[in-house]
Amino acid sequence: MRTLLLTCLIFSTCVTSFAQSGASPLFTLLNSEETGITFRNDIEDTKEHNILIYSNYYGGGGVGIGDINSDGLLDIYFAGNLVGDRLYLNKGNLEFEDITQQAGIEDNGGWSSGVLFGDVNNDGHLDIYVTRELYDHQPELRRNKLYLNTFGKTGKIGFEEASAQYGVDNSERTRHATFLDYDKDGDLDLFLLNQPPNPGDYSSFYGTDLLQDKYSPRLLQNTEGKFTDVTEAAGLLKPGFANSVSASDLNGDGWTDIYVSNDFQAPDFIYFNNGDGTFSDKTQDVTRHISFYSMGVDAGDINNDGLLDVIVADMVAEDNYRLKANMSGMNPKAFWKVVDDGGHYQYMFNTLHLNTALPEDAKSNLQSADANGGYFRDVAQLAGVASTDWSWSTLFADLDNDGWKDLHITNGLLRDIRNSDASKKFAKYIESAISAYLAKNPNPEGISIWDIADVNEALSFTPSVPLMNYTYRNKGDRGSAPPTFEKVSEEWGLGQETFSSGSAYADLDHDGDLDLVINNVNDVAMVYRNNAQESLDHHYLRVYPVADDPAVTNLGVKIWAETEEGTQFFETTSVRGMYSTSEITTHIGLGNQTTVDMLRVRWPDGQEQVLRNVSADQTITVRHSEATDEPLASQSDQIQPLFTNITSQQSPAIQHTENDFDDFEKQVLLPHRMSDLGPGLATGDVNGDGLDDFYLGGASGQPGQLFLQQNDGAFSSTSSETWQADATSEDMSSTFFDADGDGDLDLYVVSGGNEFAPQSVEYQDRLYLNDGSAQFSKANSALPEMRNSGSKVYPEDIDQDGDLDLFVAGRHVPWAYPEPASSTLLINNGGTFTDATDLLCPDLKDIGMVNDAVWVDFSGDGRNDLVLVGEWMPVTLLQNDGDGFTDVTADYDLDQSTGWWFSVAAADIDGDGDQDLVVGNLGLNYKYQATEEEPFEVFYYDFDENGSKDVVLAYYNFGVQYPLRGRSCSSQQVPMIKDKFQSYELFAAADLVDVYEEGNLEESLNFQANTFASAYLENTGDGSFKFHVLPNEAQFSSANDILIADYNQDRHLDILLAGNLYGAEIETARNDAGVGTVLLGDGTGNFQPLTPAESGFFIPTDVKSMAIVEGTQGKQVLVGSNNDQLQIFRLGFQKIP
Description:
By secondary structure, this protein is mainly beta. Strands 53, 54, 55, 56 and 57 form a five-stranded antiparallel sheet that branches. A hairpin with a 7-residue loop joins strand 3 (75-78) and strand 4 (86-92). It is globular, with a radius of gyration of 31 Å. The protein starts with 17 loop residues before the first helix and ends in a 6-residue tail after the last strand. The model is unreliable at 1-21 (pLDDT under 50).
């Protein structure tokens, strides 16, 4: 899976608490003497076969669990790499017998990787399929094995190898495979995860074209016991570096889909089953980013909303040392090449794809009309499962029987082959060995590098560090939000440090909880007994499906279990995790519930059965013969969403086009781009016809656009050379207001961005005067010189003289992040504006990187005060005393509310007569995390004394503060780092002070963020605000704009927010899980989030602004997104405050 010394594409060389209760751990590791299982998957590097030739040499093998002799006890099959496979018969009480030889399991020296169980010939007994790979020049050793179970014929345990007979003896390096009935004909088809060669640097395949069709995964259709390759006809002929697969109904349309996790630059494949024998790859349509080194995959409903979510493991370390010692730096050109080549946005983190049900109008481009779900948002950072080091197998399973699926991830690699220092030492050793040999043998012939150098001595430079597997308890957050997870590996007794690979779960001892079996490299396989039924007062129900009809299989059976606590959802599938197969029985943890009120079973052919009042703590068998053609369970009512997307009615489409500018050339260590933060929207009736019009800002090189509303509700663009003349400037925000007192709406446009040097003329704001008929002309002398990169503008009669003055927010100082910008108060003097900032509010000088503001009387004295929010700023309160503005942030206990605030809105949320605030932050689903105790910080200083200041971001890792970025990219900004820390390991061990020195840090410009949570700030009326974190659905991404209204007409104010931050530096997964969120208020400050299907509001783009317009079609919400099409939503019910 990994290539030693190969420059990778992205990173170049540049529950009940057992511990607290004192009870025994949830799991007990059983020793070999107890279980009889002695299997060891021992790996040894040799001259002929080693990690330098085969990059997947340390990948390990799988575990298969199934009942091979129909005695009700689950047996175990281990796949061996250099060692033979082993089959163990379950004798009861967690005691097993090695029956490999007597069962007819062969060892011809092949490299087994994956194992799966399934009844291939429909005789009622489980057969075993073993996948094989490696050995580039010995294809016979790579032939997959099909062991047909002969128990039904002989009455004795035995198997016959029949892969050639059935046409499944593929020799193209099959990592794993899965059975599935993709065509619903009642037999098991087979999908092979074929791989190209995985060459190390010393392989004959190194440097060759690996993404050829002949290496593509394969779909084999089962037709009367013979398998036929239908890959190309099914639309699946696409090569990749396939590691794992999940065959599940991901979009809920009743057909089995296929998720393939791909290593390296090949994107994951999300194949939706079209129901006609073909599949369509929808990865880029239904995800916004994916993992890069995608490893194990599993599907399960983690939040009990009835949709299958997907976990994909990657290989980024959780701790600072391993992260930096084994990850040398970033390669932006390679990252963007992957994107440009169609590889999607790939990041080296685990992805937890939360399945999302969509409104009907959003389905047409993504999936079939019958689909329920099938759009995926990565919430791994929010859930707390993004970083689990070099990971392999992933399993969703309710390990503590509390009713929520937990997560187990195996971990570890025999040698840290991406260790940056080891790579250098290795290269020096090889170079030295070659030089010494050539000095003695100047004309060598017929020798290999390993005749010259000793492979084990060469590899001795590479660390070998066993790691703990990761176990996460699902904390069971209710609602549609992703639950958060807590790491419980050691607490649950699963803290052994190993090199683990394949894993599987099953109730091996029939005690009502799930045991774990793990295949290790260079160690005995582990069997963990689950003690949940002894330790916890939790209940369970187990459901075993029997497909007693040749027209169906027991794969793809859907099960809903309804109790007083809610409904859990399951779907049977062939394989889970990596290389492995878990039990087919559906295990349902029930917590304290002793009865399942309704158990609903839907078979793949659509027939259903319902069992009511099923007692807990038993295993029941459900049979297809007991199902009925008519669904017995009532379907949910058709959702009537609050919003309808009517963008398709607008012709031509309205598009914002961002210009191409590389911010990181100016400041290498920027956390995100500063040049793509538009467009803004301004609305108003500019031609006096009673209909709202709007102005959409343009990026640099694209003029802004004025759209007039027509009588049919559509919008028509007006051509104007006025806008074209200022197209070089980047429009950040704008507002319509009567600047000159002539009774019509004029237009103020804020210039911003990061493309131009500080104080460039392109940053000058602009005022355009309206002649009353929507003809605008630029008022060149109406504004003072204002060559700042701004963000927003808001009118207000500041001096109470009857005309509208302006607050203009400064966003940042170009090319000097994070220097604070100054904001401005402009006083209107008959249409000419003067800068009164120094007189009225000197605190606005260098106040910060302001993103948004609102005029609101937060003090309740009848005068509108000013609230500002911004990056590295607290929610800042400037109180209006009639003569000017005073910063009273600390007086209102908000001085510690520093964050990356993007938006603010004001309204009386709780109906108590004063004005509350809703503030949009970065969100909690980002790599950067912050608390008051462990803030996220930035330091800005000339650390290397070269005349330019450097950006240093700092974070906390296990209580210690470190530089965020690694040695390679940090030294691009501060070259002295390479001299000071001459190895990656030294830099990895250094904390922030070690690297940058305390004196320099104290002299630095320093800001910190204490929270990244979007929030509702309750005005208590006694001179303070109470901070309430909004629900998790509001934390999926940055909240760039907020609209408050009574959307469901219940006389309580609701919140609509939207955002995303696509411009993140490439070592940080971009903020893209936001699709717009509606929070229904209850009038007391509590909010109920709606799913996109419920709200009708779905906007999976880089949203920067929203605005409400009124017209012939009622109220509509306009949504402006960076580099994307403007969207228009019609509101069903609303009251705008």
